[in-house]
Amino acid sequence: MNLLTFLPFIVLIGAMILMTRSAKKKQQAAAQMRDQMTPGTGVRTIGGMYATVKEIGDDTVTLEVAPGVHAIFAKNAIGAVLEDAEYNRIVHGTTDDLTIDTPVVPDDASSLTEKDADETPKLDLGKKDEPKDDEPKDGKADGEPGAK
User: Fold this and answer.
1) CB < 8 Å & 24+ apart, contacts of 40-43
2) Where are the alpha helices (DSSP H) in 41-147?
3) Is the pLDDT of residue 27 over 70?
4) What is the residue-averaged pLDDT of the chain?
5) How would residue 133 be classed by pLDDT, with cut points 50, 70 and 90?
6) How far apart, in whole angstroms, are the C-alpha atoms of residue 52 and residue 36?
7) Is the CB of residue 62 less than 8 Å from the CB of residue 55?
8) What is the chain's alpha carbon radius of gyration, rounded to the nearest angstrom?
9) How many CA atoms does the CB half-sphere of 145 hold within 13 Å?
């Protein structure tokens, strides 16, 4: 038989072997990441929920999702084990170790304007002024095609 007949099958088998290797490496990396979990560690689930590890079982992990609120998850549901600084920055909003060089923008935009409080701004809603009495409303003079 001709070698060209078997070439697509050979390429397909080679691609399958590469995909299997890649998937196995990802599984090993995820398992290694989950082995880093200890009670008190901040984690993110694959669903995007941030929590603190309370207990670790064989196949499950107990997470504290809010003070006094515990939930049991499969270990496979842990998407990332976070560093303490990153977890505190995301969950608690702390920026202790960050320096901010940019100016702080106020929540209230009224302090950004220098107009008096009595002065009300005019809003342009895109309407044109009403036509005068001597002008036709459709904007066409008498005798033009389409004039009423």
Assistant:
1) 41/81, 41/82, 42/81, 42/82, 42/83, 42/84, 42/86, 42/87, 42/88, 42/91, 43/78, 43/79, 43/80, 43/81, 43/82
2) 84-91
3) yes
4) 78
5) low
6) 13
7) yes
8) 33
9) 0
Q: Which of 84, 79, 68 is nearest to 54 (CA)?
A: 68
List CB contacts of 6: < 8 A, sequence separation 6 or more: none
Tell me the pairing of strands 69-74 and 60-66. Answer: antiparallel
pLDDT digits (tens, 9 = 90+) for 92-105: 887 655 555 656 66
* Amino acid symbol at 130: E
- Domain segments of the chain as ranges: 1-35, 37-105
CATH T-level topology, domain 37-105: SH3 type barrels. (2.30.30)
C-alpha torsion sign, points 10, 25, 86, 68: positive
- Percentage helix, strand, coil, to 5, in the chain? 30, 20, 50
